[in-house]
Amino acid sequence: MASRIITFSFNPRDPQMTASHTPARPQRPARAAKPQGQWKVDGTTPLNANEEFKQQDNGLNVRDRIIETYARQGFDSIPTEDLHGRFRWWGLYTQRKPGIDGGRTATLEPHELEDKYFMMRVRIDGGSLTTTQLRVIGDISVRYARDSADISDRQNVQYHWIQVEDVPAIWEELEANGLHTTEACGDVPRVVLGSPVAGIADDELIDVTPFIDTITQRFIGDPELANLPRKFKTAMTGHPSQDVVHEINDVSFVAVNHPELGIGFDVWVGGGLSTVAHMAKRLGAFVAPDQVADVWHGVVQIFRDYGYRRLRNRARLKFLMADWGPEKFREILETEYLGYALPDGPAPQSPTRPGDHVGVHRQKDGLYYVGAAPYVGRVSGSTLVAVADLAESVGSHRVRLTPHQKLLILDVPEEHITTLTDGLRDLGLSARPSPFRRNTMACTGIEYCKLAIVETKATATRTIQELEERLGDVEHLGPIRLHVNGCPNSCARIQTADIGLKGQLVMDDDGNQVPGFQVHLGGGLASDTRAEAGTGRTVRGLKVTADELTGYVERLVHRFEDARTDGETFGEWTHRAQEDELR
Q1: Going along 495-536, which residue ranges are E strands?
Q2: Is 530 helix (H, G, I), strand (E, B) or coil?
Q3: What is the mean pLDDT of the chain?
Q4: First-to-last CA distance in the chain?
Q5: What pairing do the DSSP bridges indicate for beta strands 251-258 and 262-269?
Q6: Which position among 147, 225, 509, 538 has the lowest Cβ density within 10 Å, counted as fewest Cβ atoms?
């Protein structure tokens, strides 16, 4: 006999609930969830064109074709799956064709946006270079890249105007000097961020250099890890300033002192910004120094095996962490990949000073390191050659790049500090920068990037210079970090800036569409000496044109100066201020 359910109907003639009996509809089976492309759950069948080309041929294999075919036959000989796909595995992206305005970024196809030149990224794990290597990087820039060179916030150097015909010769020179571009881009383990003062700082807990070396030597270029759902970013620091922006990387190791087990690392997983920002989560696990490489390998394998591959905009580890949570992630890591449990461990203590290392600092061996700021990472090949010469002239043979677009000269005798800082100043690198020059970052922008909508480097540089003139010394207000991004993807970390600027086209007072920015306010990271990392707030309709940017920042700083309470930071004020005060 069929089951029956009772329903109630309303009779307008007799406004009473009346019961009627109708046969129940058969229950439909629950619709199976769409496969997400998780290899250990759904199998390895590709669910989109991007996954198909990666399975058809490992991205690392394109190197031989570049050397043997494309460098000889030229740009037009490169098929699209190599040009727009596998070339990334060797640090190469086509750059934007000059003259295409930001309004056309989203309407043109990649081949319409791109020029027949490449951005090339030199991979520099830990940001560590000898002066000889720095000179090689600069010399290659002068000869092959129209003297272009930018220090990125990933401790890399980026060239522009590279021709495919020159790539084999560039690789030969880099590799002869211990440098390379292997997996500098692509769906792979990207550069390992490392503390720029590893091994030299007198207050570091542990030197992370051996762990970075082990990971890069064992795993970078490994075909088993060369097909991840998307990019995988790593950071590692043993310095109490927490100088590697660990909250926004896929996996980070932050040194801690365990009360019973001594010095080791706290592990953070699942950070990332772009259009959907996630702060990394602590696993709560303590990793001993001899376990670092295995734990790193376990985390990247989880991403490979369980990461989402169906939709590319969800193919980052942060989305898996959001769904699993740190407890499940740790359980899977320990049971399926390590084969042993990790002990619980303490969280890192809050940093007590900034992690950009700008200025003059004493090393533990009695020498000094000097951190200098270019304008938003923009240097040149000839500048890098001159820095190498200058460093050697004062007895230094080591240089470090930072995750804040800065450059450090190591091993400087005290008697040569003034000579070095004066020489750096003459090269456009300041060891005593203004607060705005020190705390402003910018991405590549529309000058070269196919995703960008507005210009960034020149806009940020002009804004810094104008703010220096208008505001003078504002150090008493504390750091005010200004991050300028050319599109929504947050390469310049706009959500974690005091003033984050997301490039877009906006309307000016005359109703014209012009380059400008949506404004984010009050973001920050632990390395900014904040108690807790967090993304900034947005105010509905708060946008500013590029031409108005200096005036807007000046107005905001004056309002903060008038309204702040004792010890209040700019970021704290923006979170309590009324919206009208922030416009």
Answers
A1: 499-507, 513-521
A2: coil
A3: 93
A4: 70
A5: antiparallel
A6: 509
The count of C-alpha atoms lying within 13 angstroms of the C-alpha of 568, restricted to the half-sphere facing its C-beta, is: 16
Per-state percent for the chain, helix, strand, coil, to nearest 5? 35, 25, 40
| Burial class of residue 488 in the structure, from the number of CB atoms within 10 Å of its CB (0-12 exposed, 13-18 middle, 19+ buried) | middle
Q: Specify the DSSP class assigned to residue 510.
A: T
* 3-state SS, one letter per residue, for 147-185: CCCEECCCCCEEEEEECHHHHHHHHHHHHHCCCECCCCC
Nearest to 66 by CA among 96, 84, 86, 50: 86
DSSP one-letter code for 123? B
User: What confidence tier does 2 reach under pLDDT thresholds 50, 70, 90?
Assistant: very low
Identify the CA nearest to 485 among candidates 277, 338, 240. Answer: 277
CA–CA separation, 429 vs 444, rounded Å? 19
Amino acid, res. 67: I
Instruction: Give the fold, CATH level 3, of 359-432.
Output: Sulfite Reductase Hemoprotein; domain 2 (3.90.480)
Structure tokens at 27: 């229950």
Strands (E), 490-562: 499-507, 513-521, 537-545
CA distance linking residue 562 with residue 64, whole number of Å: 62
Q: Smallest Cα–Cα separation from 427: which of 382, 460, 470, 490?
A: 382
- What would the DSSP string read from start to end of 436-456? HHHTEEE---TTT-TT-SS--
HEC string for 188-232: CEEEEEECCCCCCECCCCCCCHHHHHHHHHHHCCCHHHCCCCCCE
Cα dist. 185→156, 188, 354, 367, 385 in Å? 11, 7, 28, 36, 25
Confidence of residue 32 (pLDDT cuts 50, 70, 90): low
Residue span(s) of the chain under CATH 3.30.413.10 come to 198-354, 438-582
pTM of the model: 0.93
Give the list of residues 6+ apart from residue 92 with CB closer than 8 angstroms, or none: 118, 119, 120, 121, 162, 167, 181, 185
Evaluate if residue 190 carries a pLDDT over 90. Answer: yes
Residue 217: the pLDDT is 98
Residues of the chain with CATH 3.90.480.10: 359-432
CATH topology for 198-354?
Answer: Sulfite Reductase Hemoprotein; domain 1 (3.30.413)
Q: What is the pLDDT of residue 8?
A: 28
Q: What whole-number distance in Å separates Cα of residue 495 and Cα of residue 522? A: 8
